[in-house]
Amino acid sequence: MSTGTESMPEDATDRVDELADLLGSRALTREDHVNAPGFVVNPGDVQDVLFDLREKAGYDHCSCVTAQQYEDRFETIYHLKKYADPTDEVSIVVPTPLDEPVSQSAEPVYRTADWHEREAYDLVGIEYEDHPDLRRILLPETWQGHPLSASYDQEKPQVVTLSEHANPLEPDHEDPESDTMFLNVGPHHPATHGVLHVKTVLDGETIAHIEPDIGYLHRCEEQMCQQGTYRHQIMPYPDRWDYVSSGLLNEWAYARAIEDLAEIEVPEYAQIIRTLGSELCRIASHMLALGTFALDVYGEFTATFMYTFRDRELVQDILEDLTGQRMMFNYFRVGGVAWDLPEPREEFFEQTRDFLDELPAKVAEYNDLITTNEIFQTRCIDTGVLEPDVAKDYGCTGPVARGSGVDYDLRRDDPYGYYENLEWDVVTRDGCDNYARVLCRMEEVEESAKIVEQCLDVLEGWPEDDREVQANVPRTLKPDADAEVYRAVEAAKGELGIYIRSDGTDKPGRFKIRSPCFSNLQALEEMSQGEYIPDLIASLGSLDIVLGEVDR
Amino acid sequence: MSAVTPLQNGDTVLLPERIADLTGLGEFGVAGELLAAFLGAFVIANLMMAMTGVAGPWAKRKITAAFTDRIAVNHLGPAGIFIIVADAVRLLSKENIIPENADRPAYDLAPIVIAGSALLGFAVIPMGSGIHLADPEVGLVFVFAVAGIASIGLVMAGYASGNKYSMLGGLRAVAQNVAYEIPLVVTGMSVVLFAGSLQMGTIVEAQAQPLVDLGVVSIPSWYALVNPFAFVLFLIANFAEVGRNPFDMPEAPAELIAGYQTEYSSVYFVLVYLGEFLHIFLGGAIIATIFLGGPAGPGPAELGIVWFLLKIWAVFLLTQWLRSAIPRVRIDQLIEIGWKGLLVLSFANLALTAAIVGVIA
């Protein structure tokens, strides 16, 4: 189970030793994952160990929970990080026997583990003791078996008829004793940004309780990736996770994980193109977030929505020229990108620069239209409040965390690509409210524009005979058996992480996606408790979730 | 600019009388007068509904498109104007889906109440060019009273649909209308202090007096110019009354799907929508009448109706502009603005106006 040991720098070795001391006899064995040291602990020690790691060693970010089945055991992996330094990682591996896959829940230590463990239970079949609400999360309640477990019959179709499904209108939602009203917001509702179902309990116009019900857009993305070969068959899928124009950012998540796992060195020129494309995607994605948020706060006739789409269209055109596609780019390759910049290059540079030149005026227009509007401010300031500690507890990342003053951006804190060589700032806001999150995104658009501009400068001056867009990657990639890696990039919505376990073949043994929207959405309940319905809608909009990524 | 009104004192000829004279119906006594009145009402109702027909499927789309950088309908006829015909056919031929839990006949009556209450209001509005159905002494109060009936329609629609979103929308609509009707009426009363009458004809007439004479042009004493403060207050309260941004809470599609009209389809939907537009136009008509000199405008008195309709459309344009540019407030903020802001301001305005009028008189 442990391979991929590389010679670690000395301070890293010290750190691991310190952790080993902290865990003492609770750490049964050590594992070495490509990204982090791993400690194997007993299912009964989980809370104890995680609590110590959070309180004494400062691992305050439970980034992801991966569950998988081996031939002889189930395994849960808690990927822990620090918000202050995401390169300081540790994996806690919890094996459970096949006949009794029961493990302690991490939910009392990290709130975010709630949904992650429900997903692990749903898809793999591990049960978590002490979990507040261990139900299926992605699949319907009526589903038989756990699709990613070994005993599951993949060939057998399961048709769940409408009448067998839980009926959201069932009379048991009516409580004659109470003054509250149960209301289904979604799955078909103008403001849910996709098929999200929020079970809402209202006290007048005030939110008494909400519970997001997800899974309507579950498309077995993890399993589809497990059935594809590393080299070419997986890369098209990431475009379909966060499908609103952040495709390249998602592709990078997979590219980074597999390149680290297979030790592939990406040419610098390709990294610059990747950085350029990704930041364009971020601009497009944030424009859309801004526009749809305006829809939620202004109503469906707002001019802002059309303005943001008008400007996003320009980015889409540039991306289309670069990748040949408008949304489903499939442009990254393992070890580089598919092809060089479009010819004639000057035209591409000019088009992109034109867009960048006009951007400041447009941002100013948005500020005139939106952020300086007094009604907008009364609607957004101090609503949907997400305190920094709560944000961390829920594993929030991206503009949602940065809007709460959590200074966390993987582009800077865990550098990859070409970001290290460029001048730009991480935007944070202390407002913790809907307004702060919106401003955060608007300012990030400007920062992204800076990055794009610098990339263009570098690309323009790049020697013509050194334009290597792909590393030399073997036709068939077969990483060492049992090598494990968890790698994340800063996607439009936050930390998009990929866990891959190799089983020695050319397809992943386990492919796990850590979706930023999934974690961010969990915080919605905390944000909207006690506020009004319009605030719930605004908070949901300011979280900027894409259900394709939440449900995968 | 010389403000001319066809309603000179003493020789006010109302539309039913004119019809009676023209057709000779007056000779048939009460029955003839009744028929003439009915004919007059028919003409005005149809004029207003035709305007709604233009506004709903076409003008609104074009206006919003202009604000939001789009083109909108442009395939059928010049500037897409014939979309009105296509939409009429489409809307009328749709299946009318009535929810299982609908509380009938309240569910069926609500659209009629909403549309009907607005139409009733036009009865006392002097539209110029002799188009004026009735001029009772309590004209202004009558307009407010019948427009207020719409609240019943809204709560009926919200309650009878058997849908929680409709219910919330209906409740919001009523809370909003109650909160804003009072400032609306109180501000309207400040105009009455100036004019000294509730009669629409007299109010329009009073505004024909020159406010400032600049030799070549004489600026009429439209109450919007005499008391801009009241005008602004009335405009704001009116937006809340007709449920448009920033006060479009009762529908708030992002929150409540479509509020009280969620469950209405086909002809009922058309009626509810028609009612909404009629209310916007009625709001515009009241504003035009009591603040903008009614049908007054340059040129011969026969052009009165043109000026009057222009003024109504100007108010309509303003509502669409606000829809494109202004966020909606939250329901609690709306109620707060209504009770703590507008109500106080409107009473202050009334007291101020009373003082001014008292001093001058």
Protein described:
The complex is a heterodimer of chains A (552) and B (361). With 552 residues, chain A is an alpha+beta fold. Chain A has 17 helices and 15 strands. In chain A, a hairpin with a 2-residue loop joins β9 and β10 (206-213). In chain A, α8 (345-371) packs antiparallel against α13. The model of chain A is unreliable at 1-7 (pLDDT under 50). Chain B has helices at residues 15-23, 29-67, 83-93, 106-121, 139-148, 150-160, 164-195, 200-206, 223-226, 228-242, 253-256, 266-291, 304-325, 331-360, and strands spanning 210-214, 217-220. Chain B is globular. In chain B, α6 (150-160) runs antiparallel to α7, α7 (164-195) packs parallel to α14 (331-360) and α10 (228-242) runs antiparallel to α12 (266-291). Chain B is 65% helix and 2% strand. By secondary structure, chain B is mainly α. Chain A binds chain B through residues 181, 183, 189-191, 205, 294-303, 305-307, 310, 369, 373, 375-376, 378-379, 532-535, 537, and chain B through 64, 67-70, 164-165, 168, 245-246, 248, 252-257, 320, 323-333. Chain B: It is a multi-pass membrane protein. Chain B: One of its GO terms (cellular component) is membrane.
